[in-house]
Design brief:
alpha/beta; Rossmann fold; 2 domains; 7-stranded parallel β-sheet; 42% helix
């Protein structure tokens, strides 16, 4: 097949969760299909991006777009009729690029993230599939609770507004890829008649050692994630300000590494706290997984599934997480990880791990085995391709309702 992929950002280098998913699925799909990609650049040198994707993508369209200030976008969302998601994600430059593509070239269009469905793509191929990295309206609803009190009202209003947009946008696709059964259920609440297939996030098993998990002495805690992303930013602050100090009361040697791209000033300031080190935009996170004692993921908001938990499991690192952090993953508390919802519960779980290294290693070994068996990118890509083939047997008129560029049925 000739496939067009539309992504908000170019997935190379694959440093953040969304880029990892897109990159690794493209890597496997490109073995059997011809892929073209339309995406915004990330700021990396264009020559390096094109070289990194040259074996995966036949035509790469890097579209530089106008970027109004976030304050101006928020004001337009408050006083205008468009959602903030539309104002941030719809690009006339991207739409112009799409409109210039041949209308008889592609068999399938894959759109990464629901917000990119604000762009018109239905004229480009008989089938359009959304790769739903998250259920975006659920993510917005959960994130609203993590905002300062003076922002919560507007954030909840935006979540409700986008939920209606998302419902209409998803009616315009032939099928949807979801990362977990939890997301599939939430998608069915929005569009019960849309075909949906679970295509989980994964790992590259060749990137991780299968050797016996070593002893992990000390009390070195780790959190990894894009630190400018609200759910991760909230979790990092919670961990550094409320969880680590209580752990240090019992374990004065406890320390914390916060590792991730583009940390904002409030995250950088956490590095001034005792025992906290912020590592910005590191070239490879694996040395941090290997050097740490346990991974702590106190997420309070988010959607989709957390690649960071799959990576920690693949590294053989014991995990303490909230129920939301492990949502959608087949990793069970008491068998593969430790779970706690409140600050006090998370502190107790961290101390349990530190007090019993033998149990921590056994549980980490079970988690690593589970992840290696069930969360590979090749199996995910194969599942997606089977779904694409099943859609090809359904007449297009039965699959989707036309959607305009602004998310309203035509």
């Amino acid at each position: 097949m000739r496939i067009l992929v539309l992504s908000p950002l170019v997935p190379f280098p694959p440093k953040y969760g969304g880029a990892q998913r897109t990159y690794h699925l493209l890597r496997h799909w490109s073995e059997r299909h011809q892929i073209d990609l339309v995406a915004r650049p990330l700021g990396e040198p264009e020559s390096e991006v094109r070289a990194g994707l040259s074996d995966l993508v036949r035509e790469l369209h890097l579209v530089r777009t106008a970027t109004p200030s976030r304050t101006w976008q928020r004001l337009r969302a408050v006083f205008g009729r468009r959602s903030l998601q539309y104002l941030r994600h719809f690009s006339s430059e991207i739409q112009t690029t799409l409109d210039r593509l041949p209308t008889d070239r592609y068999h399938l269009v894959i759109v990464e993230f629901a917000q990119m469905l604000y762009h018109r793509v239905a004229h480009l191929a008989p089938r359009v599939v959304l790769d739903a990295h998250n259920v975006e309206s659920v993510l917005l609803e959960r994130s609203a609770a993590c905002r300062p009190p003076w922002q919560r009202g507007l954030a909840k209003r935006e979540a409700a507004r986008f939920r209606e947009d998302e419902r209409r946008l998803l009616q315009g696709v032939d099928g949807i890829l979801a990362t977990s059964d939890a997301d599939r259920i939430q998608i069915a609440e929005l569009v019960p008649d849309r075909p949906c297939r679970i295509v989980p996030n994964g790992i590259d098993p060749t990137a991780w050692s299968a050797d016996r998990i070593p002893e992990r002495p000390g009390a070195r805690l780790l959190f990894v994630g894009s630190l400018d992303y609200l759910p991760n930013r909230d979790a990092a602050i919670r961990l550094a300000e409320r969880i680590l100090p209580r752990v240090q009361q019992r374990r004065p040697d406890a320390c914390l590494d916060l590792v991730g791209a583009t940390p904002p000033p409030e995250i950088l300031r956490l590095g001034e706290r005792p025992g906290v080190t912020v590592h910005a935009s590191v070239p490879d996170v694996r040395p941090f997984y290997e050097a740490s004692t346990l991974f702590v993921c106190p997420l309070r908001s988010g959607s989709g599934t957390r690649l960071k938990l799959l990576e920690a499991s693949a590294a053989g690192l014991p995990i303490v997480a909230t129920p939301l952090a492990s949502e959608g993953l087949d990793l069970q508390p008491g068998e593969h990880l430790w779970q706690g919802r409140t600050d006090a519960a998370l502190v107790r779980r961290v101390l349990e791990v530190l007090s019993d290294p033998a149990q921590a290693r056994r549980r980490a070994e079970r988690a690593r085995t589970r992840v290696f068996e069930r969360y590979g990118w090749k199996a995910a890509a194969d599942a997606a391709e089977e779904f694409f083939e099943s859609l090809s047997a359904v007449p297009a008129s039965e699959c989707r309702r036309p959607i305009s560029a602004l998310g309203a049925p035509t």
